[in-house]
Give the backbone structure.
Amino acid sequence: MPASPVEFWFDFGSNYSYLSAMRIEALAREQKVEVVWKPFLLGVVFKALGWESSPFVLQKLKGDYVWRDMARLCAKYGLPWRQPSTFPRTALLPMRVVLIGADQGWIAPFSRRMMTMNFAEDRDIDNLDAVGEALTTLGLDAPAILALALTDENKLRLRRQTQQAQALGLFGAPGFVCNGELFWGNDRLHDALAWATVTEPRACHPDNQPE
Amino acid sequence: MPASPVEFWFDFGSNYSYLSAMRIEALAREQKVEVVWKPFLLGVVFKALGWESSPFVLQKLKGDYVWRDMARLCAKYGLPWRQPSTFPRTALLPMRVVLIGADQGWIAPFSRRMMTMNFAEDRDIDNLDAVGEALTTLGLDAPAILALALTDENKLRLRRQTQQAQALGLFGAPGFVCNGELFWGNDRLHDALAWATVTEPRACHPDNQPE
């Protein structure tokens, strides 16, 4: 029985999404699992929950911890890391552009490039220069792609995909959805991929008790 | 060079502390790491942060997710699990009692028993019956221990230990502290134990970048 696909829900402004975006394709390949990249606007989700910014900004103690946690995790994973001087960075333009990549087959490498700009190079990414540079580096036709990205239809598509994230119960990023199961956070990446290859229902309903 | 000890900061009301409390001694033994159990009042920490209850109660979407996450993780770890009908459970009496166990050498088995009552048996634990039963099951002198636990000195000790948790920057539970490093959450248990055996400084300050 083939593995089920795993949806990877992310936002370019989300630091823990960076950790997953850089690793998910290699890990999924090892397990022969297909990844479906699902960009959504995390800020919209936060606002609907009543938060005016990231919890890492609103809760100073947790925010301080998060940057230390990120440095340790990047060292562990062998990923480059520089704490962004602006957080959370807006990413509306690259989030619109990356949707085109879902159709054209370059969503993963473009996403890794955006994430690297934000979290390893401390660069603003919500502008034509950064996005154009990333597209060109990948050998893509930047003007044609930007034209597609900025249509009303595509803008609406990103809004709809964000609503879909809310309907799935997402309250943060990254999220992973597999066989109707939601997993939240980079810490659940392995569990989500393992779920893709489960062939029988897991005994993990609320009454589950060994013995 | 011997491994550094790892402090394990927990509250009996904290569901993710349950996952660590049940597993930490076996995992630490494998790595020859000493565990120092550090009970603290998580509710006091939350109140000081402006939260009137657990974030899993205050944020309904996250709360719903957490119970599913717990069921999955318990299935993965082979731990019994029943969603508590009261959450978060108060645990002031057992938290006072467990401090005596730190002096007398039974803090780990008593903690596992309290956690099991709360998260596998759905029993209230903040009463003399539950605490007395747990002590007696361990072959301990329940009346003598309860007398020690209820002295003003011991109550003050728990308050001081909670202040120490705040001074360490703890904003949730469980927490692990090793060599001055704070790790938050059951998901960091392995990383905290690994930190205990690090012999040279890790390259994980904010400017860390491979190459």
